[in-house]
Queue: 4 jobs
Job 1
Amino acid sequence: MSDLEPGRTADIILETRGLTKHYGGVHALEDANFVLRKGEHIAIVGDNGAGKSTFVRQITGVEQRTRGDIIFDGGSVNFAGPLEAREAGIETVFQTLALADDLDVPDNIFLGREMTKWNWLGPFRLLDYKAMREATIEGLNKTAVKIPNIRNTIKNMSGGQRQCVAIARTASFFSKLTIMDEPTAALGVQETAQVETIIKALKEAGEPLILISHNMRQVFDLVDRIIVFRRGRICANLNHQDTDPQDVVAYITGAKTGKEYEATAL
Amino acid sequence: MAETSHGTGGLTFDKSKRSWPSELNILLALIIIIVVFEIIGQTAPYMRGQSFLFDTKDRFDSIFNEARLKIIILQVAIIGIIALGVTQVIITAGIDLSSGPLVAATAMIAMSFAQTELVNGYPNPKAVFGVWAMDLPVIIPVVAGLLFGAMIGAINGTFIAVFRIPPFIATLGMFLICRGIALWWSGGNPISFPTEQYAFIGSGMMPVVWFVVLAVIFQLIMSYTVYGKHTYAIGSNEEAARMSGINVKRHKIRVYMVASTLAAFAGIVLSSKAVTAQAGMGEFYELFAIAMAVIGGISLTGGRGSIVGTVLGAMVIGVIRSGFTYVKLDGSYQVMAMGGIIIAAVVLDQWRQKRAAAK
């Protein structure tokens, strides 16, 4: 529905039209119209059960939507699973981290897409450890993540370091869109700062991001635009400079509703 | 590098921070066991000062008791070949109980294509097939045996990965099926008189040669190839492996195929060494192979361990077997001690894991 901002469709990396998800009788997500432009960082906020994670799960193919369209990178998409979404260029950091505990940092970052040589050997092709290690160090330097020893197994790392590895994995590959679902919910102050540094680095690199967060300070520090979800519907679309934390809370709790959503929001 | 050791920054890897490889612990245990037998040999009055591993006959050309060393490694080599495959299965957090009977079934099948037509000028009394299957080139029985193994592995892997049957159950079923195939193949009769070429495969120290060569190959594969990395990844966190784009089903089938093909090869070597194939061969081999892996530090929950560890585990079992004979203790004690060592190995490993986690 390019009528949200006519004439700027070439700029749009992700758009949803009437995206809806019902779990039986529960309307978890209702008629979400959403636009994300290239290079833009947006936050999705809302109470528990407002439909934020449901929204993300439809986009990344973790679940199949009830109805509506998803247009990604100029074409309508139907991801059968998270893998297809990743292959199309959507990198997601899930709340449950998908890391292999017994492997080290480069192994995890390149899991499933290893750099190899002697490819004629098929499944027994050789791993290019040196290249992967160098790319990892380069990637971590770029994101300013500090991990004392990348040869250490994930098992021996703190929660923050694990989260950083999971995020560095996303950041190490050129992706068209990055989605993070509450990346700092379980982290301490320093670790949160590290994750935020990575997000800022993504912004500088011009990679678009959808951030789900409960942390107002973080949201206002990091993103350009804030989308508020309430009871399965989008109820506000706010520019960072036109709003403040109290205002956003008012939208979350239902004290206020965005003008363009007054007809539909509950 | 000063920064690095404080863990505050720097991204180059710090060798001093790499953890002590668990294989060294097994090597240490192996040395301790050897020393214990050596001490018993020197001090127990009935042993009359014999040495366990060293040459005591004052020959100039040898330091070690080569005959005993050869026996130690020879008696674990064939089961060791099975253990190389079982190790990979256990690293994926699976288990393979079917390898012992698979050894017997493969021995029967391969041997029946490896017979000579004439024994001392008379027709082969154990012939399974007609003249067409006699005096075939050695490649035919070997390939037939390996293909049979690969097929059994593919069936195991398919039931486990695609139909989600627990590995214990799927391979327990295959355990019985393979034993049945071994009995059915020649109606329970032994198959004997192989060609010279076939008899060479397992003659003399050849089983050790195969074991060492295959161990080196698979250690390299597990450490340096995509196959190895995905095997560890699946055992470590199957869900993460799937999310990362690894085709977990296909990979698991591959691992079970590799394991069963190795077990089939062990069956070929065993029948060649014994110059006969019998349906009852390979009894308890699957359990000894699992024991080698477990003593060698392969975690039954998956993700951890190495081929080197399994080779050391095989050596521990070899040394204990040989050592008990050396100190003239009855075979029954041997079996009991082996059981104790398997349990001790797992207890020690868990204790080590807990301590590492607490650090």
Note: Residues 1-7 of chain A have pLDDT under 50 and may be disordered.
Job 2
Amino acid sequence: MKGWTGYILRVNLTDKTWKKESFTEEFAQKWVGGRGFAAKILFDELKPGIDPLGPENKLVVALGPISGIPAPNTGKAVVAAKSPLTGFYGDGNLGTHVASQLRKAGYDALIVEGAAAKPTLLYIEDEKVEFQSAEEVWGKGTFVTNEWIYARHPKSTGVLNIGQAGENKVLYSVIRSMEGRAAGRPGIGAVMGSKLLKAIVVKGTKTIPQERAEEMKTIGIEGLKKARELDQKSGWSKQSTDAVLAWCNEVNGLPVQNMRKTTHPEAFKVDGERLNDARIATYGCPNCTMHCGITIEDKEGHESELDYENIGMLGPNVNVFDLKQVGSLNYLCDDYGLDTISAGSVLGFYADAIERGATTGDFKFGDAEKGKALLGQIARREGKVGNLLADGTLRMGKAWGKDSVNYAMQVKGLEMAAYNCKSIPGQALAFGVAPIGGHHREAWIITFELKHSTRESYGPEKAAKVIELQRIRGGLFELLVACRFPWVEVGYELENYPRFFNAVTGLNWTLEDFWKTADRAYAMIKLHYLREFPNATRKDDYPPAVWFDKANADTEGAQKGVVLDYGKYDSMLQHYYDQRGYDQRGIPTKELLAKLGIQKEAAEVEKYAKLS
Amino acid sequence: MKVTVKLIGPLIYEGGFSEKALTLPGPMTAGELSAYVKIDKKRPTIITRNGRAVANGDKIKDGDRVVISHIYSGG
């Protein structure tokens, strides 16, 4: 079996044991890697109802056949576990040297079980696995932890670590790697923290097995050159992802004031142009061709790495329009290991709920200094407020009552990314049906809606576009594992990815083969959901009620008076289910599951819930 | 005819400005306006007029705010 190492490393922190386990070629081809491996492994090994923050939960780090191979943007790894935020499968991907180092160590995935008795650094070097003390950095932020690790290991070493937020089990804490890289929005950092696992350090000395290594080297280097050329030609990296902020502000899609508003006259102060002007350095992931991490000096003089999502949510969403202050909020999130999207949503929701009398407090929109203090309280779970805000917007809304949950900007418990979709139905659907909750990674169709459909449409073409993009973004790229940016932002051709896959594996797959595998991974995540929530309904695929509320419509501008329509949204959701082969609840039918070859998994789910 | 044109992202560096009020020499379509402000015709763009997407052939009117952007894909 070429293309995969054929091995998974299983580590148990409770009894400090480890073993190298092989997997079959059938498993490899069925699940490919990354999200596919993680979803399958966690489905097989976790019992429904377990405590996500207990030792029974497992952390999976999964790679794909092109992870770490020199080719466009392949320095990515998937991290996954049962999410403490959403209560079912959660994952994320991040740029890290772990992508190449774990594969060079001889593994396509790492499974971490149990829980350590003391703060631990898991050290992996080929067949050597050590459980080292991390007590010296327990209680420290991710930047200090990173420095501490890299003072002892070369810069090419793969590192995953958590900050105080993960240690204190904040439900939207992330795993970090290098400066500015983070993943695991649904609290995968808290899962590491619950295991007293401060860091994972990986070094490998072997060669990643490839069927046609020379061909891969040639097309990989060609690809790196081509993707760089495309970026330079388009000028995308000038402002990176933050260029979209000014556009969202123009088309009434910016998250302002807990997504109450869609545009703001001061938005230009935090837009891509200002970010580029303030740039002091640029960072990217391993094998990156279009570095998206632009750093600025924040209010306190730290170097803070920004992109659109964290600016949108920690800036306009909390009415902060001072780029240096946004940088400070972002720096703190990165250091504590908090997800910036959820943190911005939590702060916005808190200010909104105070304004509306759902709770009390002295935090107001626009108060960056108080926001910084709150982030510290959240990361430390300090006091009643810090402790509640550490649990995310859904739990905050449930605790406060007074219908505040209606403007908790989340889907399935996961806070939505920085796009205000009360007048953008297709993207609202994309958030609604994102398999792990309100994530933008799976599908983003706003320009399609405006340019190739009509904004007001709730038609089947939007459901089809969401599915098309889910197969590519949440499927192909999360399985292989690679960053989607070269394709999605500068037009590097999608057909290159099966070429890479075929060169390393010796197989002859087309994109169609990947779509089926992607559908299988999505169905698998839906089975996770149903097994945990046997009473799941289509309402679980709805965005927050406030997006349907006429009282929340824009009062001026092109989208004045427009909000989502319940009946039409439901009809568009049905288009999505019909095209996917899902039932009325949004669950794959038995017929579809059989077609995807996961009848065994379906039978397991039927012990807990009904399938149609 | 007076309009305001805003360029987004890399188009700022191509067109040489971020936002400005222009007096046009005569009637123009959205596509003609894009070429008038020196945006490469081969570059895929999305143009909005007063917050709503328009086709290249749609006419621009006096007082319009026209935004020309690189086509973003949500990161």
Note: The longest strand of chain A covers residues 76-82.
Job 3
Amino acid sequence: MSSGWQAFIALVKRDLLLAFRHRGELLNPLLFFMMVVTLFPLGVSPESSLLRTMAPGVIWIAALLAGLFSLESIFRSDFDDGALEQMVLSPHPLSLLVLAKVLAHWLVTGLPMLLMAPLLGMFLSLPAPGLVAMELTLLIGTPLLSLVGSIGVALTVGLRRGGVLLTLLVLPLYIPVLIFSTNAVSVAVAGLPIDGQVYFLLALLALAITLAPFATAAALRISLS
Amino acid sequence: MTEKVSLLHARDLSCYRGEVCLFENLGFELSAGEALQVEGANGAGKTSLLRIIAGMTPPDEGDVLWRGESIQDRRSDFNAQLAYLGHHLGLKHELTVEENLRASVVIQGAADSLGRLTDILRQVGLSERADLPVRVLSAGQKQRVALARMLLIGAVLWVLDEPFTALDAGGIGLISDLVGHHLDRGGLAVMTSHQAIPLGSRLRRLEL
């Protein structure tokens, strides 16, 4: 095994261990996600035909916002305690280490939402084809959001109050993902094929995996200099 | 006697913070077995200079050369021979001393040296503390953990920003010994400190 992959794995492991030691914070995005979705029937209407129409949008918006609020934690603590300086000074490509950090972040924020989504879909009486489409779009979409978001976090991590700026930077880039994903779920509920939307999301994901780590690495160097 | 070859060469470095010029046309050469102590008042730009030498901040003007090549062009090769100890130690407070060292040494590409972990922990006086989370250590002990990391990485060039902060007399002696030993083996060190470092003729001074 090359030492680059060893470093990749060591960093993912370290971040998962850190997340595990902070279990309380770990649950925050997931709780937010569940609360928003479960409050909708109470606040709007418990009528199942209405909920079924709203379900794709509600679940996706909740997932997107939960992801957005937890985004800053990708690099915040590493920036504050100097671990990021050590990463930048590693002989391994910074983009590889960035990818490890994003993967670890997705595993602790994106993956739990992915596992919880079918249950929430059933709460909103989403039929089975819709649930499948929901899972598929979340599986492609949430890593995509983490990757794109990491660029924004890297740019704003050096600012004391970067939170608002981060939202402004990242939200416009999230909108295409939201549109294609919710559209795919609605179309699947209507019994139509969703190949087009899925391929488009996959293309975006391929683009993000190949380009976002480089952009994030460059942005981190700027934030640290 | 063989002629000394300069490994680290700073050429015409300038650094500005907004309108203020911290230093201009600064240059030095350092060869194997030599240490450079950077001195200056608070805010004189010592940390900025060290960050430039470590390649974290690009200088506004000038170059830093390592073995004759600009460190910005050969970043990966240079980083493999560099150990940097800054104001922020880069330790994770929730992880134990050993977990911290294992993770960061592999990330720094020095996984082979993990076999020496126990020895090095003894050397810095932390063998009893290996399983404690870093959060419960004192500031001086945290500094010692960072020193252990530096020893494990096995770099040629040490860049140390105020390494004596928070250390007791024993710790100060420890760093002086470690740096002296490092120089004996042909290493280089650049450090800022307000304290005298007993390294004799191998120590050069730079006043900012």
Note: The first helix of chain A runs from residue 3 to 21.
Job 4
Amino acid sequence: MTVTRLLDQDRTAITFTVDGVQVPAKQGDTLLTAMLTAGLGHVRTSEFGDGGRAGFCWMGACQDCWVLVVGKGVRRSCTTLVEPGIEVVRR
Amino acid sequence: MRIVVVGGGPAGIRAVEQLVRAGVTPIWIEEGPDGGGRITQRPPPGFTRDHAALYGADAGRARRLHATLDAMKPRTDWRPDTLVWNIRPQDKVLHTLTNGAAQGEVAYDALILCTGAMDRVLPLPGWTLPGVTTLGGAQVALKSQGVGIGANPVLIGTGPLLWLTALQYAKAGAKPAAVLDTTDFLTKARFGAGMLWNLPTLLRGMGLFAQLKLRGVKLHEDITPLAIEGVDGVTAVHWRDAAWKEHVTPCDAVGMGWGLKPEAQLADLAGVPFDYDATQQNWVPRKDVAGRAPVAGVYLAGDGAGIGGVEVAELAGARAALAALGDAHLPSDMALTQHLDGRLRTERRFRKALEQAFPYPAKLAARMEDSTSVCRCEVITAGELRAAAAADAPEVNRAKAFSRVGMGRCQGRLCGTPAAAVLAKALSVEVPEVGRLRGQPPVKPVPLQQVG
């Protein structure tokens, strides 16, 4: 999958980490957008053994894009904005 | 008089506007950081596209809604980033969670629920793969993040949102590899006349279709989606055309959606009874024409009260607020009330035709293969659900207890409609006879220590 930056991408570059690795993002990106445009492919792994998940509804309803944000707990990546330096752990 | 409005979309904005006009200062609760709803969702700060670029033909509506939204925030007790996760109707108290951390309780005398809707889906083999989203999700990605779910997505489903999303992607430079519509042309044509009740919207829909053709987007009608192929992500869609010929369309993402489904969990927790709307093929909370629920002090408006679209949401939001004001013997605008009732009557006729022209393909859902996951939260197959039916589950809540379909983190939002179709077929009964999944608090997951 290739979530693709198409429009309105002239925003301040920031970075955060996912599983300890630095990931580039732009101010205003959600965690979901940043992780998928950076080519991470998925944001969590299904606990039922059917592979990676990368969200589905993008609007906070399906709960299929949860990640752990260090210091904040489990968050929906589609409704959480990237902040510089935050640490995300995929589960 | 404590009036609480839940939801900052078109219905909520217009409800709040009427309350403020009458001199009331409502508590206004919105789950997201900003209001605006979905069809007129605003990007986070830092994005620069103007209304015309963001909303196209809806730009004027979006501009008006956002202007009212911003004007009303300081005149209300505006509470963004706040999830209402439970209601205790006997005490008239809402349980809230702010910023994912701070627990709260909000008491109300009147409650206006404007909770919106989400996409209705048809589970397919491979629909849990990264790269598959709802049509609404594909739109949100583009509108509020400026990204496409892929560079060459296939869009599957039916309804105006299918064409609209396809055109938005084509204009943004991510031309869909194909647009696959499960509805045949004749069904659309048959109910086209009924859509004359809202001629501008009908013409807009036809315009979308024409523009897609002009841009060379491949549109196929009366198709059957078979499977989404891929390993770590989407690589192709398998589908069958009206002549029963099978096709494989390579793509890097899939957006899917068959109309909308009310996000009516809070109405359920408030004790509002639900009825099956056969035209909409949805369970909708009961209300009168003004939006009064049969539970004292509870009012419903917008798509959360039955799908009507953005225009109806604005009218119904204002109407519900006027009902709440009138019931509380506060000043309410009688002339406006009459005007709104007339407009809403016309819109209901339009909506009926629209729903009939773009039906949910319940037959496709009913005959999905045993191995297809109906429930993506807990990966439960249609076969497991059918086994539950065979083991004496005459309705969806029993089937949920047996199979766990609907018990996952989305609380049956996605699997509810297709699971009912599968179960009804397995039991040889009509879809309404298997009932609906009852709502349970919390309506969305809440950190455990918060439930206490």
Note: The first helix of chain B runs from residue 10 to 21.
